[in-house]
Amino acid sequence: MRKTDSPPIFKTIPIVSLIFLLFSCAAQKELTKPQPGVAFSEEDYLNLIDARTQSFQSFQGSGKLKISNSTKSDSATGVILIKRPGKVRLESFSFFGQAIFFFASQKDTFSIFIPKENKFFTGANSLENIQKVLPLDVSVDEFSYYLLGGVRKNDDDSVVIKFLEDRNIYKIYYYGEDKKVLWFDPEFQVITKCAVFNSDDDLISVVNFSRFNEVQGAMMPMLITIKFLELDAKIEVEYDQATINGDIKDEMFRLDVPGGARVIDLDL
Predict the structure, then answer these.
(1) Domains (ranges, CATH) in the chain?
(2) Residue 88 pLDDT more than 90?
(3) 262: enclosing H helix or E strand
């Protein structure tokens, strides 16, 4: 199993309770029982997953975040914003409101500012660059799908769908560069789990979606747990509130270099 040095984020976030700050949020309804099932074909369920993914054009969320490995567990307060295509922003604060880090990603580039170290990281939006700073083993775009309770399907992925009658769930297989196995609940019509395997069929990550609430007519997992096995890292996001398809300006996904900050070009 591959081991890496702890990225800067692990060295910056203090161990505190995490409550995400939200620019705007909507009331949620806790669902206490499943929605009545509908007799769809297997392809209909696949189309339903795709339709849900495409319906999320922007997102703002508040909740609890925890980043951990086998030796350390760190938390912070913050804000998550997502806007398609390919825009993500995360702001993180201490329990007392002190800024810890700012992350902004667009389709091709990303930037991270860590005030405590006065360092501003910037570079091409590649997995290699991301892993120099964050404990992620997926692209930022794929990570944004997870944060919305979804899983990205590439256009050239082949698909196999199996129904497990004894558990009343579908297992959906995406075969592409990696293999993704999805557990799909036909009652709630949501993905509850995703396992990702590399080309050697080794398990590299597991994502669990749970505690579903209805948010503006869509089922949203309020607890998302992502385990990256090769990085020995786990990220947990527990939303308190969420807003879908609100108006988020594009400039929110651009970070300017603060005066006096040390700029680190991750492409060099």
Answers:
(1) 8-25+35-255 (2.50.20.10)
(2) yes
(3) strand 262-265
